[in-house]
Amino acid sequence: MRAEYISDPIPAPPSAFNMAAHVLRHAERLQEKMALQIVRPTGAERWSYGRLEKAVRGAGSGFRALGLQPGDRILLRLGNTPEFPVAFLGAIAAGFVPVPTSSQLTVEEITKMAAQVSPALVVAGHGIALPDNVTQVITEDELRGFEDLPPCDYDMGAPDRLGYLIFTSGTSGNPRAVAHAHRAIWARQMMHEGWYGLTEADRLLHAGAFNWTYTLGTGLMDPWSVGASALIPGAGVLPEQIPLLLKRFDATIFAAAPGVYRQILKHHQKLDLPKLRHGLTAGEAMPALTLQHWRDAAGTEVYEALGMSECSTFISGSPARPAPEGTAGYPQAGRRIAVLDDAGAVVAANAPGTLAVHRSDPGLFLEYWGAPEETAARFTGEWFVTGDTVSMAEDGAITYLGRDDDMMNAGGFRVSPLEVEAALTRCADAGDVAAVEISVSAEASVIALAYTGEATQDTLAAFATEHLARYKQPRIYARVPAIPRNPNGKINRRALRENWPQTKD
User: Fold this and answer.
1) Which residues, at least 6 apart from 117, have a Cβ–Cβ distance to it below 8 Å?
2) Most buried residue, 176, 308, 466, 479, by most Cβ within 10 Å?
C-alpha cells in the first residue's frame, strides 16, 4: 500500500470572489450578534457583526481615498489591537494586498522585509518599529477614523488572484514573503470539520495576540466565516488568568500554542470549565506530558494540527476523528497528501519520507514573492514538498519524524537558525556561532547559541536584543572550543543538539 491520501476535493469557490466578503458573509444576517469580544478579568470590549463589517468596509474606503492602486501592498505594523484584523480585511475588501508582520521586529529586520514587498502604505501602531525609507504612513488612530466612512464595495474577482502576503523564515536565513490567493480562506473550510469541530454556536477563545497569523486565521477569520463568536484576551492578560476568561465568557473551544497550555497548568492543577468542549493547538508539537496534564486538569481533549505558512494546517486530529496516540492526525477531507522519497516517488505505507501536498490544493500558496526559482525548487512534479519527514500508516495517520532543514520553533514561531547566526556573528568577539533548538524539559524547548569567541553571554544577549525580535533571541548561550561540522563543512546541528555543552561562561 502506498503512502498517499486522496479524497474528493471541495467544491470550487465562486468565479467572482473576495476573501473579506467571504469572512463577513454572515454579517448582514447577524448584525447584532457578537462577532468579537476582547476579554479581560474586568470585563469585555464588544464588537457586533454590524460594527465589524462597518469598520472593515470603512477601512477599505479610507485606503482607496489615499490614492492607492489595485494590488498595492499595505504593510501592517500594528500591535495587539482589533485594528489589526480590521486593516487586514479592509485592505482585501478594497482590492489591496495586506502584509501582516510581527510587532516585535526591529527596525533592521522590518526594513529588510519591507524591501521585498515595496509597500505603498504602512499602517503604524504606537511604539512599533517602522522600516526605513517608507513612502506613506498612517497611524492606528487615523485607521480607526476610517470606521465612519461610507462602506466600500467589495472588490470581486478571480479566486486565484493575489490576496495577501505573509512572511516565513526561509531556509536561506532570510524571511521570505509567501503569496496567498483569495481562495486560501475558502480552503480553510476543510479545517472546520477536520480540526475544529466549529459551528455557528461556538465561542472560540484564542490565546494569541491579534497580530499573529495563527490568531488571525484560527481565532478570528474562521469563526467569523461560520457566524461564530471570537474571544481574544486583551493586551496584558496573563496565561494564569485565561481559565477565568474561558469560564466567565462561556468559551466552547480554546486555541493556543502548547507553551500557553504549559503556563496555565503551572498555576492550575484543576480547571472548572463547564462550557469548554475541547482545545486546539498548533505551531509546535504538544508534548505528551502537557497533553496528559491538561486532560487531567480540564477533563477535555486537545486536538493538534500540523501545517506551514505555505498551506496553513492540513494534517490534524478532530472531535470527529481523533489522532491516534503518537501521531499528528489525519489529512483533512478534501486534501491530497503523499509521502515521497528523494526521487519524488510515493513511498510505501509506514515508510519514512517527505510530506508533500498536491499542487491542486486550494489552500496552497501562489509563490514566494519575487523568487520564482525558490518557488520552483519547492515542487517535485505535481507535489509541493514541505520539508517535514513523516510516515503514513495504512489508515492515513501521519507520524511526524522531524524536519530536514533544522528549522527551530520558538513558542509557535518558526525561526531559521541561519537568521539568528547571521545576526549574532556580527557581534564583536562572537567567533564562530551556531543556533539550535534544544529541550530544557520534557515539555519545553528553547533556542540556544553555541559560540567560540571571547564575548560574554551578557554581550551576546544584549546584541541579540538590539538586532532580533524577542522570539528569535537565544535563551541559552554556551562557549565551545569548536562548532561541530560535517565533511562538507556544514554545521552538524544534530551533533550539537545531542551533545549540548554544559560549560558556563
Assistant:
1) 73, 75, 99, 165, 177, 369
2) 176
